[in-house]
Amino acid sequence: MHDFEYRNGELYCEKVRVQDIAGRVGTPFYLYSYKTFTDHFLKIKKAFEPVKPLICFAMKANGNLAVLRALVQKGAGLDIVSGGELFKARKAGCPGARIVYAGVGKTDQEIADAIRANILLFNVESIPELENIQRVAHQLKRRVNVSLRINPGIDPHTHDYIATGKSESKFGIDLDTAHLTFMRSMRYPNVSICGLHVHIGSQITDGEPFVKAFRKVLIFVTSLEKEGHRIQYLNLGGGLGIIYSDEKPQTAAEFAKKVLPLFKGRRYKLIFEPGRFIAGNGGLFVTKVLYIKQAASKHYAIVDGGMNDLLRPALYGAYHEILPLTKATMGKVQKYDLVGPICESGDFLATNRKIQSLRSGDAVGLLGAGAYGFTMSSQYNARPRVAEVLVKGNRFDIVRERETYQDLIQRERVPAYLK
Fold this sequence. Notes:
By secondary structure, this protein is of the alpha/beta class. The protein has helices spanning about 20-25, 35-45, 65-75, 85-90, 110-115, 125-140, 175-185, 210-225, 250-260, 275-280, 310-315, 405-410, and strands at about 5, 10-15, 15, 30-35, 55-60, 75-80, 100, 120-125, 145-150, 190-195, 235, 270, 285-295, 300-305, 320-325, 335-340, 350-355, 365, 385-390, 395-400. The protein folds into 2 domains: about 5-30 and about 280-410, Lyase, Ornithine Decarboxylase, Chain A, domain 1, CATH 2.40.37.10; about 105-270, Alanine racemase (TIM Barrel, Alpha-Beta Barrel). The strands form 3 sheets. Strands 4, 13, 14, 15, 16, 17, 18, 19 and 20 form a 9-stranded mixed beta sheet that branches. An 8-stranded parallel β-barrel has the order 5-6-7-8-9-10-11-12, surrounded by 4 helices. Strand 9 (about 145-150), helix 7 and strand 10 form a beta-alpha-beta unit. The longest helix is centred in the middle third of the chain and has 19 residues, at about 210-225. The N and C termini lie far apart (about 55 Å). Mean pLDDT is about 90; it is low at about 155-170.
């Protein structure tokens, strides 16, 4: 599942003691396991080996260049949602032929840059977007591949903020509109509508919503093919859940066992876009206790990491298991709210959590922080963003330096009349 474990009461990432990294780097910081990231990618690759899919890691989960390069070197493609992610994908060494581009709000410049980068596919979310891609491609005298993102109207039974396959979602095109678009494909001479894309949400622990969605798409594909339309690519998205607390998500092998029979005898190029499944359990957020505050009804452990660093608990009510860097052999267990220094009541990393008794200076790690951790962080309250560290075996490297106060004002300018 992951490569964080205790040895003689000390928390290790692979072969490196986390406390040693904290002493060198300072807190708070994100810590990533190379082995966990690459192992999880290879598990999906192996599970679906019979159909040799293109597995595009969803960059929005973790956009660190070192992480991206590690996965690209193992054969991963990248799923991007912005021009900035395209830029980073190219810097990470990902060939254009292994990049797919999703997102509901692509600008003219982003579309043009992606066309020039020779990406494999645009995942198109609306007809106005398709028309705009046609216009930009015509200006560039290019013909580009497009996959229509289908909204299958499936409830994935996950948090509302990360459910994208419901009919009321902003994502995707309903089946009737998609069918009409194929019928009118001659209106888009610079676009090859050669694929379908379906992504119903994130942190989905059960295989049944996927099976329902894929069956619905296959029925639609069959009807299109009977009308003479050729489909080359089926992008089945991502969304596989991971363990944060007591979840029992399906493994990659179990997922493949349910999905592969649906595509037996069909000759589509399958594409997957896992993000959290690959990165989530590969990351630890390390933070240090500043103060222990006792209130009338509870104890607060005030730490140096806040909601600007790890937003998920405040945004989603998300659970991250807490591991002290040094485990007490004996002693009192106390119930704490783990809260940060941000001036917001919503600034918490955990509530009502039983942990070994903590003191000022103790450091703890929050598991499951490899996905949607640093990528969602900010400089709120003028707090520099934290460092990122990658461990491989018995070595660790700082793969993103901690920001400085000077970084906070690097792009700001005071007009002359205020000087």
